[in-house]
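Intended use. Records like the one below are meant for learning the mapping from a protein sequence to its folded structure. Do not use them to infer anything beyond what is encoded.
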Amino acid sequence: MNARGVSKVIGLTICFALLSVLLATDSFALTKEEIDVSVKASLERFDKQVKGAKEFREVSKGMLVIPNVTKAAFIIGGQYGQGALKEGGKTVDYYSLAAGSLGYQIGAEKFDLVIIFTTDEALKKFKNSEGWEAGVNAEVTLVDSGVDVPASTLVSQNPVVGFVYGQKGLMAGVSVKGAKFTKINPD
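Structure written out for the chain above:
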């Protein structure tokens, strides 16, 4: 095997080790109670860190809250998290987020994700899907948490709006395009 092949094998081994360690601590065997506690804490961070959060909550038809999404990569990357769909402030279902990627990337990070469905039609399409994929089933307009954009402006132009906040780690940029959201039934 040449030096390039050895580098790829080492890189893949490191990536899988990172993913295993990060995902094992946060993604497996979460109960409804554990998810609910994480979602509540995430929404408190949302209210503190996202400008206009209260207004976005008020105009939403539904909010998908995925706290502590874990992302790790070394050329090949992945991200995973579990959260809840809330309507009218109440949890109606639980979902997981899973995504993979390939490209020039290295590092690990955690972040919170809130996706707001601004129309009944967008929410219904999400709930009726058997694995809703961002960018395929609907475009998710990611809004910088520090930008002060009136909710009415975003709602009139975008049926699905996403917020990434509370980032901790060493990776630059977050995308939800290609992320798959699947209903789960935690204990």
